[in-house]
Amino acid sequence: MSKNKKTSSEGIKKRGILETIWRYRVLELMCLPAVLFFFMFSYMPMPGIYVAFVKYNYRKGIFGSKFIGLDNFKFLAESGKLFDLTKNTILYNLAFIILGNFLAILVAILLNEMRSKMFKKVSQTLMFLPYFISQVLVGLLVYSLLNYDTGFINEILVALGKAKWQPYSNPSVWPVIIVLIHLWQQTGYNSVVYFAAICGIDAEIIEAAKVDGANAFQRIRYIILPSLKPTIVILLLFALGGIVRGNFGLFWNVIGSNSVLYPTTDIIETFVYRATMSDFNFSTASAVGFYQSLVGFVIVMLANLAVKKIDPDYSLF
Amino acid sequence: MKKKLLAALLSVSMVIGLAACGSSGSSAGTGSAPASSGDESGASANEAAAEIDTSEHVVINYLTTGDPPEAGTEKEANLNEMLGELNKILTEKCNAEIQIYYIPWTDYLSNYNLTLARMDGSVDLIGTASDWLDAWPNAKNGAFLELSEDMLKTYAPKTWESVPADHWELCKYNGEIYLMPEDNFAQWTNHGWIYRLDWAKEAGLENGVHSWEDMSKYVLWVKENKKDLKYVWDSDGTEYAQMSNGWIASHTDFVAIDGICSGALWGGTKSDLYKVTTPVMTETESLVEYAKLMKEWSQAGIWPTDVLNNTSGSNRDEFRVGQVGVEQHHTQTWTDLCSATAQNTIYKDDPKAETGFFYFGEETKNVVALSITHGAMAVSAGSANPERALMVYDLIRNDKDCYMLFNYGIEGKSWELDENGLRKTPDSYNPDTENINGMTNYWWGRNDDLEVKDATRNWDAIDKLYAEYDKIKIDYPYGQFVPEVDSIQAKIDNCNEQYTNYMKQISYGIYNGSAEDIVAEMQAALKSAGIDDVTAELQKQFDELYK
Which whole-number Å values give the CA distances from A106 to A192, A225, A230, in the listed order? Predict the structure, then answer.
């Protein structure tokens, strides 16, 4: 390194690309796992997207099968449900993203303000636990809670002399139930990122504010929240990329085949799963995946552009 | 600018990465093995008629649907003991052994299709069916090996001889044989209501249930009078299609075409077999009546209120022990439930207990015999040893010793002959661990020449019903019709999806609004999903084939 110090910037340019690669070898080595990961799992399978444009034959393989253009995309358009499905998917994801992040930040701040270490650890663990419960179990739990004949809630209502509640035939209550389930499962996990970001704030600033007489609310309002802003923006942008991708596990296990509830709970994933089960078609499924990727890409680009307009420092690129 | 472009590309890759996860599975297993195996088999079949090279010992994987016995249990040990015996014979006769590859019942159809799509040689013999296991779509997708006449004559000579030429015709697609049919086994898989005949008599139905009206009287009576049941019918929300098919069969002379989609939407009529009709669109009045009746049952509490989300029931087992009063399934299941086997404890607990069967179509005498490809064996195009797979199948299907072992287990342990030459279970028999038949799930080539009648079955009742069927049945008329659906697949999928969603609500009587409205709504949805276009296309293909 000491050698390079003496050389002028002109000198570096002359040394060419190999020299540069060699100079930053340590950093590059640190990057390598991530680069490899994305190369193997994102770039190598990418040509496979071609399967969305062929009539896939097992024996001929993806590139040997007959090219049929956009026919595989027809199915989604012809269903007449594309708009409703996309709308449901996006609205649910918006609710998940907005409420989820809001709650996660709130929880992270509350955890940070707690003084009792014991209580802090216990509550953090308890909030984290639902994240590890399989969606299949979540579906069963919800059914055991809510079903009409023997559900927990209805047993209580009957014991109290009230009329029974019948959510499984009432589509309008499900957006609320599903969002609640999602928050219950994910908030503990999501708050960890924010909690870490809060721990990363320079303690001196907070100390100084305390000395200046700022109370807890002022500290949160004027120090913690502004410091979290970059984290919030980045997480939001990432989340937006997946906004047309539904949480299949959650919806499939909680709603399942109850078609009465589909008007408010059917998302792209569940519809595609049901409709293509009957003719097991890789190509159609890939076409749908491709459609979701495209919409996701456009949304990320637009959101990033918007962020950049407002404050270039916070944009992803 | 460069940086921007790079960043944009990166984020594309990130978003697509998620999508690619799904498709990478499909791309990974394709391409390699199958092409070679096809060529080899063709070549060797021609020259090897006289001497078959079996010098190398091979393992043939036999794929079947069903849950495997749990590892380490006595049940598994019993299965392995039988397989050990069988493999001794197979090794001696064709230097091969058989292994079972299970596709468990949970999501069996998608797992089945996924396994076939892998084409990595992990399975050789594939149990399949044209009506309930996507045999034709898989044949079209290239999952099955074309079985040339030479191959069959050389490696499966007994099967080749025993299946008549017109049956082989029904196993062809584009002139190539893909399936070896189970065409010599008497069974009926037409659906209907299985009910307690003794209770029906108590309810005043002296002759049992013979129509939907009787059935309605029966279920409502059971609901009122058998208070200690779990439910009258602990349904799990998956029977909607059979129920509506049953209603149509009982009220029209409709004959459905198998294997287009899960719902029986298209078919002909007994009076005009080759004119495509869609009763769901034309039988409006009847469907409204159906929707009303089902709402009545639903409101009476015949099944769980949240039936569509009820995945915890196991109605058939509950029927065996008398916790429910109804089961919806096919004749073959009834032959089990009506017999005083060890599992069916209702007959021990109550000497008066009897189980009746009201088959769909009884009122209109509308019963279609089973298609011979309801069960069939295919060879995977990814198999490394298709010749040996055929030899193993030929033995299991036609060799008495192999057949007995594979279907019933070891004689003296899992079964024995009684004085009348019927098959019974030894005293030491444990139905939970020694039921080999329930583990090998061999539904793809059973053979009445080798079958030994089960002494525990209620043959008086069964033979009576079979005789009744034989009088009124027609043969499945569309065995040769394998529709080309590429151009209309999207419409079929969408129609099936709409039909399924509405039929669930109608069949379980849980729709909002009036019966007239829900039927009209369904018909409008089907219309916009393109049901008429599909009908027209099918009619066109019908005309080409049958005129």
Answer: 11, 10, 16
* pLDDT confidence bin for B225, thresholds 50/70/90: very high
Any B CB within 8 A of A286 CB = yes
Q: Based on the domain organization, do B385 and B360 belong to the same domain?
A: no
Question: pLDDT digit string (tens) for B305-329?
Answer: 999 988 767 899 999 999 999 999 9
- First CA to last CA across chain B, in angstroms? 66
Per CB-CB distance under 8 Å, the chain A contacts of B489 are 75, 279, 281
Residues 42-101, chain A: which have Cβ within 8 Å of B? 42-43, 45-46, 48-49, 51-52, 55-62, 64, 71, 74-75, 78-80
Domain edge (last residue) among B440, B464, B495: B440
Tell me, yes or no, whether B166 and B240 share the same domain: no
Within a 10 A sphere around the Cβ of B513, how many other Cβ atoms? Answer: 9
> Which residues form the domain of B258?
211-369+477-546
Q: CA-CA distance, B446 to B184, in Å (whole number)?
A: 7
Average pLDDT over chain B reads 88
Q: Are residues B57 and B152 in the same domain?
A: yes
Instruction: pLDDT band for A158, please (50, 70, 90 cuts).
Output: very high
Note whether B428 and B516 are same-domain residues.
Answer: no
**Looking at per-residue confidence, does A256 or B398 come out higher?**
B398
Q: Are strands B58-65 and B125-128 parallel, antiparallel or unpaired?
A: parallel
* B304/A149 Cβ within 8 A: yes
CB spacing of A58 vs B119 below 8 angstroms: yes
- Co-location of B413 and B311 in the same domain: no
Number of domain units in chain B = 2
Please give the class, per CATH, of domain A80-278: mainly alpha
**pLDDT for B211:** 95
* Claim to verify: residue B96 and residue B159 sit in the same structural domain: yes
Sort out which chain A residues have CB atoms less than 8 A from B485's CB and list them.
279
Strand pairing report for B416-417 and B423-424: antiparallel
Residues A247-265, mean pLDDT to the nearest whole number: 90
What is the number of residues in chain A?
A: 317
Q: Give the pLDDT confidence score for residue B244 in this predicted structure.
A: 94
Output the CA torsion sign for A144, A146, A149, A151.
positive
User: Would B346 be classed as within a structural domain?
Assistant: yes
pLDDT digit string, tens, across residues B166-204: 999 999 998 999 999 999 998 898 999 999 999 999 999
The alpha-carbon gap from A258 to the nearest alpha carbon of chain B, in Å, equals 5
pLDDT cut 70: percent of chain B above it: 90
Determine, yes or no, domain membership for B27: no
Distance CA B12, CA B349 (A): 67
Do B391 and B332 reside in the same domain of the chain? no
Residues on chain B touching A280 (C-beta within 8 angstroms): 109-110, 113-114, 117, 134, 137
Q: Are residues B276 and B321 in the same domain?
A: yes
Nearest-5° Cα angle at A285, A282 to A288: 150
Q: Which residues on B lie below 8 Å from A297 (Cβ)?
A: 11-12, 15-16
Query: Which chain B residues are closer than 8 Å to A166 by Cβ?
Result: 305
Q: Residue type for B137, please?
A: P
Domain with CATH 1.10.3720.10 in chain A: 80-278
Beta carbon pairs, A and B, within 8 Å:
205
Question: What is the least distance, in Å, from the CA of A216 to any CA of chain B?
Answer: 39
Instruction: Flag if A256 and B309 touch (Cβ within 8 Å).
Output: yes
B401: in domain: yes
Candidate from B11, B16, B501 with C-beta closest to A262? B501
Name the most confidently modeled range: A230-239, A308-317, B401-410: B401-410
Judge: A280–B504 Cβ closer than 8 Å, yes or no: no
Residue-wise pLDDT for B493-506, tens only, equals 889 889 999 999 99
User: How many Cα atoms occupy the beta-carbon half-sphere of B115 within 13 Å?
Assistant: 26
